[in-house]
Amino acid sequence: MKNPVPQAASLLLEKLMLLVHIRPLPAGSGGETPPPAPGYYDTSCFKRGDLLEVPRTLFIHFGIYLGENRVAHLMPDILPSITADHQQIQQVVTNKRLILGVLARTASVRVDTVEDFAYGGSILVNHMDRLFEDQVLGSEEVARRAEKLVGATAYSLLWNNCEHFVTYCRYGASVSFQTDKFCETLKMIIRDQRSVLASVLVGLASIVCLGVAPSTTLPTIFIPFFLWMAG
């Protein structure tokens, strides 16, 4: 049987980076990539309360359409925890703000244009409805839920990310299928005793990046670590 650890470890590292919505910069770029110009997307097919998805390479970013080219979405961001300057906070979030927000576990539910939200990616509309039969709330209620949550909030990859936000708003249940897949990968690495060092590193990363350790992580971190050091 093929050892799943290298593949799982690679997926884990990619998830840690991509799930925080870091925007790739073009080769040779010295700064942030500018978002598309207004009007880049045809918003005539969007309705207030729609759930918008922007698929990336290995993750999906989610938001709730509020009408008039506005999208509410949750993003890691360090700035709301250090300043009350709304004008400064409302500027497009840079990669540095994203990374520091993940490390500090702070975020904000912000309202941006469709262009700033999607950042050049393709947009799927209400694609998750098929997974929540008879649970879709009324469009106006969805939008109002999103609007009430606008502002600073805690961030957790496990408990409060952009997918948790939109599923709560549209379906009344805060869940994240991306997180579930991430945790399954994490458990697979941790339980594989053939890779003790990977278990140690993944366990420590889960504490630092996620703010919480899975139930199987803590005993698996330290006991194999000392055995590995002694061996």
Automatic annotation (TrEMBL):
Reactions listed under catalytic activity: 1,2-didodecanoyl-sn-glycero-3-phosphocholine + all-trans-retinol--[retinol-binding protein] = 2-dodecanoyl-sn-glycero-3-phosphocholine + all-trans-retinyl dodecanoate + apo--[retinol-binding protein]; 1,2-diheptanoyl-sn-glycero-3-phosphocholine + all-trans-retinol--[retinol-binding protein] = all-trans-retinyl heptanoate + 2-heptanoyl-sn-glycero-3-phosphocholine + apo--[retinol-binding protein]; all-trans-retinol--[retinol-binding protein] + a 1,2-diacyl-sn-glycero-3-phosphocholine = apo--[retinol-binding protein] + an all-trans-retinyl ester + a 2-acyl-sn-glycero-3-phosphocholine; 1,2-dioctanoyl-sn-glycero-3-phosphocholine + all-trans-retinol--[retinol-binding protein] = 2-octanoyl-sn-glycero-3-phosphocholine + all-trans-retinyl octanoate + apo--[retinol-binding protein]
A GO CC annotation given for this chain: endoplasmic reticulum membrane
Transmembrane segments: 196-229
EC annotation from Swiss-Prot or TrEMBL: 2.3.1.135
Domain (LRAT): residue spans on this chain: 51-178
Pathway where this protein functions: Cofactor metabolism; retinol metabolism
Subcellular location: Cytoplasm, Perinuclear region; Endoplasmic reticulum membrane; Late endosome; Rough endoplasmic reticulum
Keyword Plastid: no
Protein's membrane topology: Single-pass membrane protein
Pfam families xref list: LRAT
Keywords, comma-separated and alphabetical: Acyltransferase, Cytoplasm, Endoplasmic reticulum, Endosome, Lipid metabolism, Membrane, Sensory transduction, Signal, Transferase, Transmembrane, Transmembrane helix, Vision
Cleaved signal peptide residues: 1-27
Active site: C162 (acyl-thioester intermediate)
InterPro entries xref list: LRAT, LRAT_dom
Biological process annotations from GO: retinol metabolic process; visual perception; vitamin A metabolic process
Coiled-coil blocks: none
Role this protein plays: Transfers the acyl group from the sn-1 position of phosphatidylcholine to all-trans retinol, producing all-trans retinyl esters. Retinyl esters are storage forms of vitamin A. LRAT plays a critical role in vision. It provides the all-trans retinyl ester substrates for the isomerohydrolase which processes the esters into 11-cis-retinol in the retinal pigment epithelium; due to a membrane-associated alcohol dehydrogenase, 11 cis-retinol is oxidized and converted into 11-cis-retinaldehyde which is the chromophore for rhodopsin and the cone photopigments.
Family membership: Belongs to the H-rev107 family.
Designated name of the protein: Lecithin retinol acyltransferase
The species this protein was found in: Irena cyanogastra
Native organism taxonomy: Eukaryota, Metazoa, Chordata, Craniata, Vertebrata
